[in-house]
Amino acid sequence: MDMQGKIVRGDRILENSDLFEMLYDKYFDKIYKSTCLITLNDSIAEDAVQEAFISAFNNFEKLRDIKKFHAWVAVIASNKAIDMIRKNSRIYPSDQIDNLQEKYSFEDPLDLILDKENKLKIINALNKLNLKYRQVVILRYYYDLPFKDIGEVLGISA
């Protein structure tokens, strides 16, 4: 990234604000929803996703494959969310799950396959998992990432 707010990618120069707006609009909702599933707290999820996008753009040159941008930002967001939870050492009440369920419609794979009762059971089960395991489950089943890719981005063996 240069000082005039442009991202230099190979021989192309992309206006930072245009690229940011396009990618943010395209991916924010899904990344936000998956981060809500990790945190069970919508304000922490929103903060984490916003910080993830900022971090992604500050480190854009490190991304080797633009097709993986979505998963890359999702991993950054979930890591930031976990850091925020640990930093605040908060325990989130289970009624957060009900609030999330009412406030946001999860129209991704869960909505296509499962009814509301089953989604609630899945969200409750996710809530019982350790944050790192929850992160892996969401990356695998929500983003359909191969275990190898999950291991690489999280720095663990697959």
Structural notes for this entry:
The protein has 158 residues and is mainly α. It has one domain. The chain contains 8 helices and 2 strands; from the N terminus they run ββαααααααα. A two-stranded antiparallel ribbon has the order 1-2. It starts with 5 loop residues before the first strand and ends with a helix.
Briefly summarize what is shown.
The protein has 158 residues and is mainly α. It is built from eight helices and two strands.
Strand content: 5-15%
The spatial strand order of the largest sheet comes to 1-2
- Determine Rg (CA atoms, Å): 16 Å
Strand-pairing-aware structural class:
mainly alpha
**What is the multimeric organization of the chains shown?**
single chain
Form type: globular
Order of helices and strands: EEHHHHHHHH
Give unreliable regions as ranges: 1-13
What is the overall number of helices?
8
E-strand count: 2
**Termini, distance in Å?**
33 Å
Overall average residue pLDDT: 75
Major sheet description: 2 strands, antiparallel
**What share of residues is helical?**
55-70%
Number of domains: 1
Protein name: RNA polymerase sigma factor
Pfam families: Sigma70_r2, Sigma70_r4_2
Domain RNA polymerase sigma-70 region: 24-90
Organism: Biomaibacter acetigenes
